[in-house]
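=== Structure Prediction Worksheet ===
Name of assembly: unnamed complex
Input type: mixed (protein and possibly other molecules)
Chain count: two
Listed entries:
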Amino acid sequence: MGLEDINWALIAPLIIVEMILLAVALIDLIRIEETNGPKWVWAVICIFISLIGPVLYFIFGRRQ
Amino acid sequence: MQWSVIFKKEMVEYVRNVKWIWVPIVFLIFGIMDLITTYYLPKIIESVGGMPEGAQVNIPTPAPEQAFFMSIGEYGTMGILIIALVSMGLIAGELKSGVYELVLSKPVKYSNYVTAKWAALSTLILTSLFIGLLAGWYYANILYGDVSFGTFIGTFLIYSIYILFFITISVFVNTWFKRPGMVLFVSLLFIILVNIITSIFGHYLTWSPGHLSSYLNGYIHTGNVTGDLWGTLATTLFLIVILLFSAVTVLKNKEM
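=== Predicted Assembly ===
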């Protein structure tokens, strides 16, 4: 599939929103004092698993 | 007065633990992901390859209404899971950490405590659902064809009753256990049971909440609110009230 076949105007919002989610997760990760488990592991999970990674962090990583 | 204090405290907490950012974003992604993947599916299959020479890939393009309903399908599974995960510590977490005793050592009414928390969670989830469905409706219009704005509003109103039903189940189960994991498990079991019972005895229980999404599918296609749909909405609202009452009662009689 050639890249020119894709209508980027359609997909761009999806990518931007996912980027925002990732950014929010990482900023929160830096500012928070303590997480469940090591911080760098959560950073890796957030960056390498798109969508699910940040969600997992928000639900399980933040200490309530 | 007291009610709004608890409600506001809950809202501040949602802002602090960034739920007001990530829950709407996740619902937004759920709303549009299926629409986009289905739209590009033929191209994806083509580019992945592995098809024998001359094979024809015929994937019918869904009708606009069908496409819009895909968003609902996503909320019926992934959405429910996210709601269960978000709400599993709502009261159970406070029971466990002792915040609950702290709150109720002041003269706080149980009913205020439960309903304020329920309302706060509902506000968060329903706002997210609205944003997600709106995005889904927008994409269905762009990629597949016209779905009227009225249909979108109707769909949102009807489906939010089902979502409220699940939120209420989760709040109710929250009053039983101290362990959030247990709440997650039991509330999911609850909604699965409702759906299984509906699919077995569906002929008799025509007003069961489990029918809501299939009736909703009919509504999206025809635009008519049938008698069965009204009945189902009424039953579901009735069950929501009953569950909230029971949640208050269970919490009142709980030995700490």
